[in-house]
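Customer escalation, tier 2.

The customer says the design service returned an amino acid string that "doesn't look like it belongs to this structure." They asked us to rerun it and document both sides in this ticket. The original structure tokens are below, unchanged.
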């Protein structure tokens, strides 16, 4: 039987951002509940190598997730796994109501850090082969071992695409990387590493190219690649297609409740990350203007946990210096 649970702070999403907020708010002795629809850690669970988180020369995403989880819960944060926030509303008494697939939570402050999902390519065959073992994947770190000595195609030119293409080349016999431009979005150091790896012969990069369909019977057998400049198409035989073309924020459930931009990112003021609903902050990759870095996502989580106390001291603070963008 669903019940109504009162708390000081509800945090939606237990990724690095939400766990950083939870560590701060729980340590400040605020009753803190974190709602997580899947597993704590979010997207970083898919990264086995983080080299740009201050203080760590190298740490795996799952190790960092576990460390953050343990730190937050040690201070008393309650993390509810398998609980998905479904609706948000501010009541007349100023409390924020968060409805979930289980209980309803009533909080003085809500911190939204729901992160994002994999962006889809939207080509024929993508959905058909998405189920486990069929050959379409969005996570190189998770699925690379299934493609040992096989041929795979990767799509994208950002940090994820570059890192995961290199990772896949340690397993597959051939990795064909398809990027729609002739310049990478990924950081220079990663691109340099990719180009070095390409010289070893496992990775082949196809610039100015897109995938127009993923083909096969019961599993992926080939992909159709088109050069966007010459418009020429050809099929390459492959056993899998890995799609690394970014993320879409998990904010669909907030449409009509909060101001979102065209891509679905939550609008907020650039200094304190206040949304247009008093008491509702946003932090991390799902807000407009986010730098989309692990360190900045964690920084967002800390920022809202600190400035939340201004709102507790004086609710009128919400409207001071506020310019929601
Ligand atoms: P990004 O948004 O950075 O890159 C997406 C890539 O996919 C771009 O190259 C883009 O091309 C391409 N793309 C987008 N849509 C399509 C499409 N429909 N068809 C073909 N190609 C498409 O996403 P990432 O997942 O790589 O990274 C997300 C964030 O996480 C970034 O801020 C990144 O820096 C960060 N990150 C950091 C890491 C690290 O620091 N170690 C590791 C992984 C991620 P185009 O460039 O032409 O737009």
């Amino acid at each position: 039987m669903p019940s109504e649970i009162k708390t000081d702070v509800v945090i939606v999403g237990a990724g690095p951002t939400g766990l950083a907020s939870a560590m701060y708010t729980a340590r400040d002795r605020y009753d803190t509940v974190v709602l997580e629809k899947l597993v704590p850690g979010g997207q970083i669970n898919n990264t086995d190598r983080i080299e740009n988180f201050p203080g760590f020369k190298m740490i795996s995403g799952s190790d960092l997730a576990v460390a953050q989880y343990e730190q937050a819960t040690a201070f008393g944060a309650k993390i509810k796994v398998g609980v998905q926030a479904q609706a948000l509303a501010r009541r007349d008494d100023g409390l924020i109501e968060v409805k979930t697939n289980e209980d309803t939570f009533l909080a003085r402050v809500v911190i939204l850090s729901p992160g994002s999902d994999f962006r889809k390519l939207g080509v024929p065959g993508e959905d058909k082969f998405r189920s486990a073992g069929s050959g379409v994947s969005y996570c190189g770190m998770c699925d690379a071992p299934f493609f040992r000595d096989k041929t795979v195609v990767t799509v994208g030119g950002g940090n994820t695409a570059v890192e995961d293409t290199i990772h896949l080349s340690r397993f597959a016999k051939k990795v064909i990387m398809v990027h729609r431009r002739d310049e990478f979005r990924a950081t220079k150091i990663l691109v340099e590493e990719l180009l070095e790896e390409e010289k070893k012969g496992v990775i082949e990069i196809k610039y100015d190219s897109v995938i127009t369909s993923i083909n096969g019977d019961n599993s992926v057998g080939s992909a159709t690649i088109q050069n966007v400049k010459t418009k020429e198409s050809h099929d390459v035989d492959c056993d899998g297609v890995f799609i690394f073309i970014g993320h879409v924020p998990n904010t669909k459930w907030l449409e009509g409740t909060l101001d979102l931009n065209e891509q679905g990112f939550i609008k907020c003021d650039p200094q304190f990350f206040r949304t247009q609903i008093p008491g509702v902050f946003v932090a991390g990759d799902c807000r407009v203007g986010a730098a989309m870095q692990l360190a900045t996502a964690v920084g967002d989580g800390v920022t809202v946990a600190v400035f939340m106390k201004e709102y507790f001291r004086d609710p009128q603070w919400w409207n001071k210096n506020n310019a929601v963008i």
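Tier 2 assessment: The sequence is consistent with the input. The helical segments are 16-27, 61-74, 140-143, 159-169, 188-198, 294-313. The chain has a mean pLDDT of 94. Sent an explanation to the customer and offered a walkthrough call.
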